Amino acid sequence: MKISAKAEYACLAMFELAKRQGSPRPTQIHVVAEAQAIPSQYLVQILIQLQRAGLVRSERGAKGGYRLAREPQDISVGEVLRVIDGPLMVTRGAGANETEEAGGRHFREIWSQVQEAMSEVVDRRSFADLVLMYEREFEVKKGKGGKELGDAGR
Questions:
Q1: Residue 78: which residues within 8 A CB-CB, separation 6 or more?
Q2: Whole-angstrom distance, CA of residue 56 vs CA of residue 66
Q3: How far, in Å, are 35, 61, 86, 101 from residue 112 at the CA level?
Q4: What domains lie within the chain, and their CATH numbers?
Q5: pLDDT at 135
Q6: 50-62 as b/e, with b when 16 or more CB fall inside 10 Å?
Q7: Tell me: the pLDDT tens digits for 79-129?
Q8: Which of the chain's termini has less CB crowding within 10 Å, N or C?
Q9: How high is the mean pLDDT of the chain?
Q10: Rounded distance, CA 37 to CA 119, Å?
């Protein structure tokens, strides 16, 4: 499986929107772009594709921007990857043997199992899970009272 840069950027954008889901205002493109180091022009194209798939919605106006169209726990990483890159597939080299010789049939079975396992992992991980992981990591990096821990505090 190969994840395209576009799919990774889409996941990063969805993650940023998920972190800001409770905000009273929609998140502007430049905020997502800066927070996740995504080129703004590229991000616009990605958000349009995500909007067409029903994963984000836009709000127009001077204070407009984007929000998730559903709750973060209802959107999986796998769903975003499929919207951007299509079906999740195990990719093989150009010279891959399609014959029954040299155990090819057995390897195709293994590749099929690998593909199923990849799908299971990305389908069970929601953007709410990722936000929770981020928040836990952030709490660990911050000491009691919100102060940054030094090396001695770890």
A1: 88, 119, 122, 123, 125
A2: 7
A3: 37, 47, 17, 18
A4: 5-88+100-153 (1.10.10.10)
A5: 92
A6: beeeebbeeeeee
A7: 999 999 999 887 766 555 555 566 777 888 888 888 899 999 999 999 999
A8: C
A9: 87
A10: 27
The token duo for 19 is 């972190």
pTM of the predicted model as reported, rounded to 2 decimal places: 0.81
The answer to whether 76 touches 121, Cβ cutoff 8 Å, is: no
The sign of the CA dihedral 28, 63, 138, 118 is negative
| Residue found under tokens 């102060």 | 147
Helix axes 5-19 and 127-141, enclosed angle (nearest 10): 70
β-pair partners for 76: 126
Torsion region of 130: left, alpha or beta (phi above 0 gives left; psi -120 to 50 gives alpha): alpha
Judge contact between 71 and 128, C-beta under 8 A: yes
**What six digits make up the tokens of 114?**
């690998």
For residues 77 and 4, is the Cβ–Cβ distance under 8 A?
A: no
